[in-house]
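seq:
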Amino acid sequence: MQPKDLLLALVVIIVWGMNFVVIRIGLDDMPPMLLGALRFLLAAFPAVLFIKRPQVPLRWLLAYGLTISLGQFAFLFSAMSVGMPAGLASLVLQSQAFFTLLFAVLFLGERFRLVNLLGLLVAAGGLLLIGAQGDGLMTLAGFLLTLCAAAMWALGNIVTRKLGKVNLVGLVVWGSLIPPLPFLALSWLLEGPEAIEAALRGFSPTSMLVLVYLAFGATILGYGLWSRLLSRYPASQVAPFSLLVPVVGITSAALLLGEHLSSLQLVGALLVMLGLLLNVCGGWLQARLRARLA
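struct:
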């Protein structure tokens, strides 16, 4: 990978890793469903006026928006609002890789490789340790909701695979048109008009910076640079960089929010990272081992 593109990959990793700290800050001023509505409203407008709609059937665009946008972030924002630390959220959300494997077997007829199964079992052990809550810094509800967010992300990945080769930036921007109204409806029903009014009345420069970061940084810039890398290099060369997102997430949460993992959670985090490494790089390692033995 050329140095310029390596720098772009690192920008994406930092932006996506810091995303969880920014969400945590945003939830201090806005209820989760309202934050979701404003995030995707800003991600869609005015970008849809300049970015061409991807040539995909409306039903698949709806499926993408309802899973990877609405479903993922409704669960994630809710999880972090009820006690899921930002650093651990960045890690547990990566379990989407294993949900994607499971859903690909169920819906696309794909098969597990042995190394994928091994990675899944190792990561599952890590998640069980994290779910044991260690020293009580994480709520069980937050942990389970984050797993639901990961499952919705994985369903969105299956939708993306069904679409085949598509402009990822266009898909993200036009898919962002779908979540605002459902998010607003959920906010009205779950959070109430009084909470919405209070959040809007107390809207601050910090709230605006949070929304700008989530909409333009994590969404448009992040996916824009990621799609550029995928268009220039094999997915097997780009995908391993995503393993660094939880590293940035956990580190930034420790430095900026004072979050720290218990010993049990740290062991679980290392197991999850090892499982992800086996899943992403296991095929390559297996091929290299076979080549050496041959």
